[in-house]
Design brief:
Elements (H helix, E strand, L loop, with lengths): L1 H17 L1 H4 L4 H5 L11 H5 L4 H24 L3 H8 L1 H8 L4 H47 L7 H30 L1
Helix pairs in contact: 6-7
């Protein structure tokens, strides 16, 4: 695995040097074609040639400094990381805890989302659904438990229930017609 990674790293190191003219140089318009849009007032590629030379070498120098520091800390003097962590404990903890971004995210987004969810769970689901809908369903189940006993399967029971219904309907219509007729006179 190290051999392919070595070949890839050499390619990554030298591709920028070899293809600078195509990436950001005089041939960039032909290389990129229409894949990168440049406005008519965009002169960044021309202005890039006017920066001081040290700006171009700064990333390479930073990489070399990081490589030297890593060699010093982890190969030459392996006890140095622990000593640095003790000497700069608050800064070390700050970086170790990833700038406390996870804690900030937890306080700003996660806990309020849990609070909202808990409110809807206890207040919405618990109080409204379990309190009213489930209570109503229990009431309906109790009524239907009694009404189902009226279904015996005998025809004369159903005929009797229909006659009772017709008598109740006629009584209601007669009573309401009497109220209407008395009010109109």
């Amino acid at each position: 695995m190290l051999i392919p990674l070595g070949v890839l790293s050499l390619g990554a190191l030298f591709a920028g040097v070899v293809f600078t003219g195509y990436f950001i140089g005089h041939h960039e318009a032909g290389f990129w074609g229409a894949s990168i849009f440049k406005g008519e007032h965009n002169h960044i590629l021309h202005a890039m040639h006017e920066i001081p030379a040290w700006v171009g070498f700064a990333p390479f120098v930073a990489m070399l400094a990081g490589l030297a520091l890593a060699y010093l800390y982890y190969i030459a003097v392996p006890s140095l990381p622990a000593a640095t962590a003790r000497a700069f404990r608050p800064l070390y903890l700050f970086f170790l805890n990833k700038w406390y971004i996870d804690e900030l995210y937890d306080a700003v987004f996660v806990r309020p989302a849990f609070a909202i969810g808990r409110f809807f769970w206890k207040g919405g689901d618990g109080a409204i659904i379990d309190g009213t809908i489930d209570g109503t369903a229990a009431g309906v189940a109790a009524v239907t438990g009694r009404v189902v006993k009226l279904q015996t399967g005998y025809m004369y029971h159903y005929a009797f229930a229909m006659l009772i219904g017709v008598a109740a309907l006629l009584t209601w219509l007669t009573y309401n017609a009497g109220l209407m007729g008395g009010a109109g006179q």
